[in-house]
Amino acid sequence: MAATADDTAQHTHASPPHRGRRRPGPVAMVISFFGEMLITAGVLLGLFVVYSLWWTNVVADRAADRQADKVRDSWAHESDGGERDAPAVYDSKNGIGFLHVPTMSDDDILVEKGTSMKVLNDGVAGYYTDPVKATLPTSGKKGNFALAAHRDGHGAKFHGIHQIEKGDPIVFETKDTWFVYKVFGILPETSKFNVGVLAKVPEESGREKAGHYITLTTCTPIYTSKYRYIVWGELVRTEKVDENRTPPEELR
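Structure tokens predicted for Integral membrane protein:
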């Protein structure tokens, strides 16, 4: 049935008057503002974490790969023709050799001089020159070949250091020699100021006499730099590098 005029009038009078939307009070506006600020801060923090833990690894790995190629190309050039018997240049700015630790990483970790952020941020390991001077294995002298690398970000070459166990091999590769070490001691946590672990006879390692040692150091716990994680190894033998650069059995 069609609606009558009376029905329409009654319906019109029954409808509530239209009112505009109430504006939020000052407290609500402040809460909303700070909420948006927290969301923005969270996004920025997330981007920073991605940059620190992923992108810096990408950039560092690229830099390390370029440097590694230079070292291997240099070795190949020194071994060509009449330069085959030329003495190896170990203390070059491009790197002195490669560290191999199968239980920690599959990487061939380039080793360079120094442990500054400028060096380590390129995704390499560096040997100490300060406050303790590392003894290079190529010198033939007894001492401690002490190294450092990042555990997270910037290549994170020592990220898996906690996977190393006593008895595991550590191999240092140079142009003409493989230096094969065996892990004998691990210190899961020590002060960042404990330089005694880098000594020629490393303190707290259990060794009391001079020998041919290697020490790996990095930050701990993961994603912090509060303490240092230490791994010690001792040289068990050396092998001459053949023309095919056949790795020692520990790396096969």
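The longest helix spans residues 26-78.
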